[in-house]
């Protein structure tokens, strides 16, 4: 099932319940997301030659242990990487196949809600978003060329820390504890990703 097909199966009021609860929305956001929701239904889906599948996973935040967020990303056939989708045009999102296990785990309305939140990263107007995406891609390509031809200005972490006035005053013990916490979160999150994306595993995502 494509994301476009999933949009047709949900009611916006149900989508809004999740957006309002999980993303702490302001009242005026209702109208903005409602317009996006309806606008998407009127767009013509672009082809999806890479076979990208749209996934949603509830995972723990590395920076705030014990808090959770919904990671929205794309996966490709025979590829273990997870891809950011912010630079994808809205019409391309429509042709993404949804990962059924994610829909089963969190519900169709919640899946759509978190996808809409990610899809509107650059704004709520499709034309304006396309312009921003094009510019971001141009900037990324420019930075890539600078790195390739050796003209990029690269800074070490120590230089960055000095520039922003950051001082790492953690003790060796605190650093070790935080590293262990980071490794624990990474391992727990990976289990969730594997459960949702594996073609063999069944079941619902764990609640945190």
Tally of contiguous helical segments? 9
Work out the radius of gyration: 20 Å
Kindly report the average pLDDT value: 92
Q: Indicate the low-confidence ranges by residue numbers.
A: 200-208
Shape: globular
In the sheet with the most strands, the strands line up as 2-1-3
The helicity comes to 40-55%
Range of strand content: 5-15%
Structurally, how many domains make up the residues? Answer: 2
Structure characterization notes:
- The protein has 208 residues and is mainly alpha-helical.
- Strands 2-1-3 form a three-stranded mixed beta sheet, sandwiched between helices.
- α2 (12-23) packs across α6 and α5 (100-106) crosses α6.
- It folds into two domains: 3-121 and 155-197, no CATH class; 125-153.
- It has nine helices and three strands.
- The chain has helices at residues 3-7, 12-23, 29-42, 90-93, 100-106, 108-119, 126-149, 157-164, 172-197, and strands spanning 53-60, 68-75, 97-98.
Show the helix and strand layout:
Blueprint: H1 3-7, H2 12-23, H3 29-42, E1 53-60, E2 68-75, H4 90-93, E3 97-98, H5 100-106, H6 108-119, H7 126-149, H8 157-164, H9 172-197
Parallel strand pairs: 1-3
Antiparallel strand pairs: 1-2
């Amino acid at each position: 099932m494509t994301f476009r097909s999933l949009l047709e199966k949900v009611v916006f009021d149900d989508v809004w319940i999740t957006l309002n609860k999980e993303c702490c929305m302001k009242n005026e956001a209702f109208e903005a997301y409602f317009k996006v929701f309806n606008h998407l239904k009127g767009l013509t889906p672009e082809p999806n030659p890479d076979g990208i599948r749209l996934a949603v996973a509830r995972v723990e935040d590395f920076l705030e242990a014990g808090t959770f967020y919904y990671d929205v990303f794309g996966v490709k056939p025979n590829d273990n990487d997870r891809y950011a989708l912010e630079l994808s045009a809205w019409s391309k999102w429509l042709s993404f196949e949804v990962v059924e296990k994610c829909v089963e785990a969190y519900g169709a309305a919640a899946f759509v809600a978190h996808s809409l939140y990610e899809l509107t990263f650059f704004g709520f107007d499709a034309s304006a978003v396309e312009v921003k995406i094009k510019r971001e891609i141009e900037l990324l390509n420019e930075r890539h060329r600078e790195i390739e031809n050796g003209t990029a200005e690269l800074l070490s972490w120590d230089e960055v820390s000095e520039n922003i006035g950051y001082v790492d005053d953690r003790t060796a013990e605190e650093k070790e504890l935080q590293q262990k916490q980071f490794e624990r979160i990474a391992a727990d999150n990976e289990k969730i990703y594997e459960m949702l994306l594996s073609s063999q595993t069944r079941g619902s995502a764990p609640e945190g």
